[in-house]
Amino acid sequence: MRIGIDFGTSYSAAAAVVDGQLELVRFGDARQFRTAVFFPEVVPNVDDFVLTPALEAQVDAFVRASRLDERQAGRTPRGEMDLRRDAIRVVRRQWMEERTREASASVASFQDALFGEEAVDAYLEEGTGNLIESPKSMFGYKLDPRVRKTIVSIAAHILEHVRLVATRQFGTPVREAVIGRPVEFRSSMGAAGGEQALSILREAARIAGFDEVSFLEEPAAAAMHYHQSLAERQRAIIVDIGGGTTDVAYAELGAGEVPIMHRSWGLPRGGTDLDVGVSLHSFMPRFGKDLSGVPVHHFVEAASVHNLPKQREFRKQDYRLVDEPFGSRLRALQGTGATTRLNQSAERMKIDLSASDEASVTLDFIEAGLKIDAVAGDFRAASEDFLDRMGRLLDQAQADIGEAPASVFLTGGTSRSPQVRERVGASFPGIRVVHGDPSLGVVSGLAQAALLSNSSIASESR
Ligand SMILES: Nc1ncnc2c1ncn2[C@@H]1O[C@H](COP(=O)(O)OP(=O)(O)OP(=O)(O)O)[C@@H](O)[C@H]1O
Ligand SMILES: [Mg+2]
To answer: Fewer CB within 10 Å of terminal CB in the chain, N or C?
Structure first.
């Protein structure tokens, strides 16, 4: 059976069309799950140490080396038992160190993985282990081979989770998938980042037990979904504003005919950039940004919670000499899980500000009673960069198509924000904007695409 999978930066979902009906895969009670995995740290157990022939040989080598040392130094020779006991102690210690290195660098703890909100909660409660949120954000980054392997394993775990849950729900083995992809992946290597992202997804899908996968651009998938609802043929602009990317397509849809995808445009920015914006604008000044002499890039690193190298960089800094209260707050922010919590607070504030003119959060995990207040103007300042870029992308799309679309179909979690909706409207004045389900537009279209043979979606060159 073939399903559609929306492997989102923030949320993932899956669906299939069964007997003509769209069926969403349910993860517990939910129709999507946060794209996060938690791996509890495997603590190596010294009781697992046994003297294999290879380790025995190492012990013998240590005993021989000690004898030689004694002779050269002219010391009285120690008994064989003593020497051997010391040698075993050294070999055992090395063995433990090796296991510890392997456990933190490898896939050893992958069987115990937790997914979604459960993953984030476990990480915050346990205070140990590894939490990987939004792995999709890293697919297009320059990765050393070891890190790439880890990222592939993480993606494989998420895809396998989806495959097994879907297999259980549909009562038949799920072995094929149409996976959504952004028009432009977040990348540090230009187009090569996009290629790498696809190869990571392909490899991960194979490990996860999929025999065959294909990819469909996310806005084209959303277009497939919109297509189903259109009785008359029309040319429409589809806009999907998600957590990591903003994707646009121009398509000819409706009337039960074959949908034709004319063009697409992508911006590797989304809702997670708004969270970073809120964090830098409203939170970080309370940690000393622009006030303490700590370089601004430290605050960017702390706020970039999905960028593991930046997070590592921030944790390495020494803030013991920074003036109070900033020094203590920065040190608290270096604690396990604190940047994750701060990011959750920034996301909450962003969502609150999309519904009301004021919002506040309390950062008790940093300092008892540390309260941050923000108003609509703060959100405007925090989101200006993203809204400008998004506006330019939409203006470009409008200029490229050179005619007024019949409608604009809007989906993606970030499209819930009235400020974002307003900006979309400004690029297409007088055009009807149709609001799809912000969370399920893409996955519903991917399910349609999974049902149809590839020939049923005509695509022109981009
Ligand atoms: N009311 C709201 N106002 C603003 N943003 C919101 C609101 N509700 C959810 N979001 C944001 O929507 C984003 C998630 O959207 P979505 O699920 O479409 O992304 P995704 O599919 O995981 O990402 P992508 O498609 O970019 O890979 C998050 O950044 C979330 O904070
Ligand atoms: Mg999406």
So the answer is: C
